[in-house]
Design a protein that fits this description.
Blueprint (H helix, E strand, L loop, with lengths): L1 H17 L4 E2 H7 L1 H4 L4 H17 L5 E4 L5 E4 L14 H13 L3 H16 L26 H10 L3 E5 L8 E13 L2 E8 L4 E6 L3 E7 L11 H11 L4 E10 L4 H6 L2 E6 L2 E9 L2 H6 L5 E5 L1 H16 L1
Antiparallel strand pairs: 1-3, 2-3, 4-5, 4-8, 5-6, 6-7, 9-11, 9-12, 10-11
């Protein structure tokens, strides 16, 4: 049904844009197959009025003209429906071109490719490559989690969602009812920031820990949605970006390069191990667990205990 309506709207728009004179309802009905198949004149009139309103809501400027005989006609003049010229400077074209190249998920690849073609039509050079000076680098935002797309749509449409979530320290997943705010990619992992209704507080969920299907729920949001900056700060904080202390760890030589990049100091211990001082904030224990046997926490004691608890939970399955 949705495809049939979209096709009918497209045909009506093409008729109105392609004519040089106003077309009456009768002429439009004779030109569009879906209108010819209407059961009655009343059914056609209702369908036509809804379609006309939908096209206007989409931005098409439709004029209503009365001829000398008093008959009403419709047309959409091209000069009234033409967008102004789009001008992009080099930096804007580079940013948008890079964004179009980043997505690797199949459902977004087509839209990104179409956007890139429109950018080139708007003035971006065919051979322009924002990574030309760094040809060995290729931008990527991988999306492997099945929950990504339904959560992205729920964030866009402001729809509450329900899903089962397994915390790193828990052996079994727990049901969550969440008002999703935004998705953020951090250190190669996707996170959802939102309002957890059961706990009455904002929470961040790692998509790889969502099990089963994401289900949408009826109703409106019960908590205000913060602005984008606040959401990003929340994601960064819960993922360990906001550090207010330091931690001391042992790291196997030749391993843990992301940790080495964050290190305040590095000291060789010998026997294939190094000692690193790294920033310590919320979520560091979850990050350290990902490096498995290549990392040993020396201090503080509470961080060591948290990492041990997480490893034991993983071992239990």
């Amino acid at each position: 049904m949705a495809i049939a309506k979209a096709e009918r709207l497209m045909n009506l728009a093409l008729c109105l844009l392609g004519t040089r004179r106003p077309l009456s309802k009768r002429e439009l009905r004779e030109s569009i197959e879906a209108y010819l198949e209407a059961n009655s004149e009343d059914s056609f009139n209702r369908m036509f009025e809804r379609d006309k309103d939908d096209l206007r809501e989409l931005g098409l400027v439709i004029e209503t003209v009365e001829n000398v005989e008093g008959e009403i006609g419709y047309l959409a003049r091209r000069d009234s429906n033409r967008l102004p010229p789009i001008t992009l400077d080099a930096e804007e074209a580079a940013a948008l071109g890079l964004a179009a190249k980043v997505w690797q998920q199949a459902r977004l690849a087509g839209a990104a490719s179409g956007a890139l073609q429109k950018l080139r039509a708007a003035g971006m050079a065919e051979d322009f490559d924002p990574y030309e000076a760094h040809g060995a680098l290729e931008p990527r935002i991988p999306v492997h989690e099945a929950s990504f797309e339904p959560l992205m749509l729920a964030c866009r449409d402001r729809r509450p969602v329900a899903f089962d979530y397994r915390k790193a320290t828990a052996a079994r997943p727990e049901p969550r009812l969440v008002e999703p705010w935004a998705l953020e990619c951090w250190r190669g992992h996707w996170y959802l920031a939102g309002w957890d209704r059961e706990r009455g507080a904002e929470r961040v969920f790692r998509l790889s820990r969502i099990t089963g299907r994401v289900r949408t729920r009826p109703g409106k949001y019960t908590a205000p949605v913060p602005d984008v900056v606040t959401v990003r700060e929340t994601v960064a904080g819960w993922a360990g970006e906001s550090a207010d202390r330091s931690a001391l760890i042992r790291l196997r030589a030749g391993a843990g390069y992301p940790l080495r990049a964050k290190a305040v100091s590095v000291r060789e211990l010998g026997d294939g191990w190094d000692e690193l001082e790294i920033p310590y904030g919320h979520g560091l224990d979850a990050w350290l667990v990902e490096f498995g046997p290549d990392v040993v926490v020396l201090e503080p004691a509470e961080l060591r205990a948290d990492v041990v608890d997480r490893l034991r939970a993983v071992a239990k399955g």
